[in-house]
UniProtKB/TrEMBL annotation:
<feature type="binding site">
    <location>
        <position position="19"/>
    </location>
    <ligand>
        <name>3-amino-2-oxopropyl phosphate</name>
    </ligand>
</feature>
<comment type="function">
    <text>Catalyzes the complicated ring closure reaction between the two acyclic compounds 1-deoxy-D-xylulose-5-phosphate (DXP) and 3-amino-2-oxopropyl phosphate (1-amino-acetone-3-phosphate or AAP) to form pyridoxine 5'-phosphate (PNP) and inorganic phosphate.</text>
</comment>
<comment type="similarity">
    <text>Belongs to the PNP synthase family.</text>
</comment>
<feature type="active site" description="Proton acceptor">
    <location>
        <position position="44"/>
    </location>
</feature>
<dbReference type="InterPro" id="IPR036130">
    <property type="entry name" value="Pyridoxine-5'_phos_synth"/>
</dbReference>
<dbReference type="GO" id="GO:0005829">
    <property type="term" value="C:cytosol"/>
</dbReference>
<feature type="binding site">
    <location>
        <position position="8"/>
    </location>
    <ligand>
        <name>3-amino-2-oxopropyl phosphate</name>
    </ligand>
</feature>
<dbReference type="InterPro" id="IPR013785">
    <property type="entry name" value="Aldolase_TIM"/>
</dbReference>
<feature type="binding site">
    <location>
        <position position="46"/>
    </location>
    <ligand>
        <name>1-deoxy-D-xylulose 5-phosphate</name>
    </ligand>
</feature>
<feature type="active site" description="Proton acceptor">
    <location>
        <position position="71"/>
    </location>
</feature>
<feature type="binding site">
    <location>
        <begin position="213"/>
        <end position="214"/>
    </location>
    <ligand>
        <name>3-amino-2-oxopropyl phosphate</name>
    </ligand>
</feature>
<dbReference type="GO" id="GO:0008615">
    <property type="term" value="P:pyridoxine biosynthetic process"/>
</dbReference>
<keyword id="KW-0963">Cytoplasm</keyword>
<feature type="binding site">
    <location>
        <begin position="10"/>
        <end position="11"/>
    </location>
    <ligand>
        <name>1-deoxy-D-xylulose 5-phosphate</name>
    </ligand>
</feature>
<feature type="binding site">
    <location>
        <position position="101"/>
    </location>
    <ligand>
        <name>1-deoxy-D-xylulose 5-phosphate</name>
    </ligand>
</feature>
<protein>
    <recommendedName>
        <fullName>Pyridoxine 5'-phosphate synthase</fullName>
        <ecNumber>2.6.99.2</ecNumber>
    </recommendedName>
</protein>
<keyword id="KW-0664">Pyridoxine biosynthesis</keyword>
Amino acid sequence: MGIYLGINIDHIATIRQVRGTNYPSLVEAALLCEKSGADSITLHLREDRRHIQDADVEILRDKLTTKMNLEMAATDEMITIASKIKPQYCCLVPEKREELTTEGGLNVTSQISKMRDICIQLKMSNIIVSLFIDAQKDQIDAAKQCGADVVELHTGHYANATNETQLTELEKIKIMATYASSIGLQVNAGHGLTLGNTTNIAKLAEIVELNIGHSIISRAVFVGLRTAIQEMKNLMINARQ
Ligand code: PXP
């Protein structure tokens, strides 16, 4: 089975926001990502609006030719925005104001009834709901119980680990990807993936899509966005052969 690449464009917005300019254009970037092999475009509308802005989500919803995956916290404000904009996918993530990036998966087990209500609300707007969780059986079971369609397994611990610990993290992701898929959840994965650590994750046959941002945007500084995306996509496809 094939494997899809979702490109997270948050950090193209970061470059714009640090100087308060109207460039680089997110629309131009997203369309170039799509032309270069992105299967979907991910953007995280954070509560503090540090990179993606409300207007970006609105404009991109119109312009994207693939799919929009809107990452957001499980708050009333975000549910209202998503229900209005209707991206094809919403990925619910935990969010802390002081963090540099999403630090771990959602704790779904501790808030099943809240998450179930949110899944119902989003699905009423025809949005496919994904929950960003750590590779743990109890979290996967809770996601299923809430009616989520997709789980995105957090690869950050794997990405940050080295040697034996990294192999242990990989094994957890492998076992949990198989389990989640066996109970009917689509399995995506992402966070901290680079050209150096993605092959082992892309090899896992149950994983449908990888969402990758920071390393690709960083690599684009040297080789351009088109090449950076093509390099990653080729690596993922080769891993499956
Ligand atoms: N998936 C989720 C749920 C995320 O929160 C992020 C970071 O915004 C990513 C994937 C992409 O992570 P990275 O930028 O490290 O590739």
